[in-house]
């Protein structure tokens, strides 16, 4: 029944990702809720990477101005995530026995060291949260969460009970976890929602198989790489896993194009390969081979608005950023 104060009412079919929200209002771009199948994103007008038509705006690199591969650091390579910061520069973590953070300039490809000397062994998950323009990263042994602001000042956020492999940011409408960090943890393998504002960690999905990396598409769907079972899953805020693609080989890197139509998966196929999988349809297109370690730590991958796939790869005793154009 549509009461005078309501715009719609579908009864039990009211949902915050549907045409009629749980507040009995018609879904609209700008309401902060991502309507499934209609909107790629909805930031309630915050202008933080979501356009005024509720489509995702991606960073775009002029890759012709840099010389690839770009040498980032020298040392024992332990792969971890990479992320664009608020200026679309690339943030890269250090290797084994160091917890450094590096920035690769989108304009020149130059590398600068922005964080060093943290009392940890490595940096694993890295993500940028647009709402406060800070890069969050997880450092391991001992396990801790930090934030890096736009002035390159580091803030200690909180100790982590579980080691973290991957970090991403939940969009509005992802259950009760909107704008919280979503972490892939291991020992046990599970997904955590980290409320960095109130220092609260909420486990919401547990897996019997080892998960390696998670990321959101523009429509608010959470995709997770199941390293232990050779597949890609979707996961709801209620912790329900659903297979999306089966048949990759130990996937440990995952990124989604800004337009939401394709994902890129790094996995062990021979020496390693980054393949493309269509969304929807789940059709795999073989991609680019590169050197890939045998661990479950994420291989850093990002995709810019011009379909350039940038990824981190270890070459003997150093790490590089390389790029290829998506087909």
TrEMBL record:
InterPro entries: 6-blade_b-propeller_TolB-like (IPR011042), Myxo_disulph_rpt (IPR011936). Keywords: Disulfide bond, Repeat, Signal. It comes from the Bacteria. SUPFAM superfamilies: Calcium-dependent phosphotriesterase, YWTD domain. The keyword Cell membrane does not apply. The keyword Cell inner membrane does not apply. This is Lipoprotein. It comes from Nannocystis pusilla.
């Amino acid at each position: 029944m549509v009461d005078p104060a309501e715009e719609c009412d579908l009864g039990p079919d009211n949902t915050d990702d549907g045409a009629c929200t749980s507040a009995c209002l018609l879904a609209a771009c700008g309401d902060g809720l991502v309507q499934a199948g209609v909107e790629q994103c909805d930031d309630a007008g915050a202008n933080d990477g979501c356009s005024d038509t509720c489509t995702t705006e991606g960073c775009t690199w002029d890759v012709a101005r840099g010389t690839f591969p770009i040498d980032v650091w020298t040392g024992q390579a332990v792969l971890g995530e990479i992320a664009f910061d608020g200026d679309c520069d690339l943030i890269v973590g250090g290797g084994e026995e160091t917890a450094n953070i590096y920035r690769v300039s989108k304009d020149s490809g130059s590398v600068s060291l922005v964080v060093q000397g943290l009392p940890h062994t490595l940096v694993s998950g890295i993500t940028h949260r647009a709402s406060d323009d800070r890069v969050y990263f997880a450092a391991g042994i001992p396990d801790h969460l930090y934030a890096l602001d736009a002035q390159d000042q580091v803030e200690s956020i909180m100790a982590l009970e579980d080691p973290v492999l991957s970090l991403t940011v939940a969009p509005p409408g992802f259950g009760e976890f909107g704008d919280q960090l979503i972490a892939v943890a291991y020992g046990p393998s599970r997904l955590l929602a980290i409320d960095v504002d109130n220092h609260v960690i909420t486990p919401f999905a547990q897996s019997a198989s080892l998960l390696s990396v998670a990321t959101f598409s523009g429509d608010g769907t959470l995709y997770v790489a199941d390293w232990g079972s050779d597949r890609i899953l979707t996961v709801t805020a209620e912790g329900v896993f659903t297979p999306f693609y089966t048949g990759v080989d130990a996937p440990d890197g995952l990124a989604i194009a800004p337009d939401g139509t394709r994902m890129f998966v790094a996995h062990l196929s021979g020496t390693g390969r980054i393949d493309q999988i269509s969304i929807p349809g789940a059709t795999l297109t073989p991609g680019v081979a590169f050197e890939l370690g045998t661990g479950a730590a994420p291989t850093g991958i990002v995709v810019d608005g011009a379909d350039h796939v940038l990824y981190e790869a270890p070459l003997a005793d150093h790490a590089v950023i390389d790029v290829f154009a998506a087909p």
